[in-house]
UniProtKB/TrEMBL annotation:
It is a multi-pass membrane protein. This is SURF1-like protein. It comes from Streptomyces solicathayae. It comes from the Bacteria. Residues 249-269 have a biased composition (Low complexity). Residues 246-269 are annotated as: Disordered. PROSITE patterns: SURF1. It is found in: Cell membrane; Membrane. It holds the Pfam family SURF1. Belongs to the SURF1 family. Keywords: Cell membrane, Membrane, Transmembrane, Transmembrane helix. InterPro entries: Surf1/Shy1 (IPR002994), Surf1/Surf4 (IPR045214). The keyword Transmembrane helix applies.
Amino acid sequence: MYRFLLSRQWVILTLVALALVPTMVELGFWQFHRHYNRVAQNTLIADNLNAKPVPVETLTSPGHSVPRADYWRRVTATGTFDTAHEVVVRRRTNADDRVGMHVLTPLVLKDGRVLLVNRGWVPAATDQSAYPDVPPAPKGEVTVTGRLKADETTGASGIKDLRGLPDRQVMLIDSAQQAKLTGAEVLGGYLELTDPAAPNGSPEQIPAPDHDSIGAHMAYAVQWWLFAAGVPVGWWILVRREKQDQEAARAAGPAEGPESPEPAAAAVS
């Protein structure tokens, strides 16, 4: 009755269906885990942004790698900006997706150690090899507040750390790299400045990370699982249709042959 399933065409179709089901189930779980991770990250960001600011020295030190649990923690620091060792970070975008540079200014703390402060975004100079027009940092002792971030790496950011850049230009914010350049003890990670705000809005402050949207990962997960459930259903529908077609063909019997030619007319005597 179902011997047609042993045909080459049906064996291939069945194997493809068997391969699709676990693949689609796995894709569904992949999207589900992405949804779960996004929700967990949003919770972490919200909690850290709402936490009371703490002195930066309590969360990091020279050579320290900022753990994910401390990303976006609000921290404070008091010191004096060292504009002589200020650098800009290339290929950075602002809230309007304009490409420019971030201004990275060392803040010398009271104990002599240094905290890297990302003061915000400025447009790049017309000549990419030229240093952009950067508004000066506040003079004298200042207390800053901002979000703690980890050192950037090529693996995490996807940004290649190019060599041979123009003077005072870098690709990544790396405390170890800046420690070598300045010879100072630099705290691990850096601070995204939120307060005090720059006069006239320049450098342009980096917006807070999005922690409201969760994307469509859960919808994609459900979609993949529905596809997985639909494969065996579709396979069975095709099997039933093939069976019905074959039964109908057998019930119709052998096809009739062509009509016999009419006998030739009698010869005229």
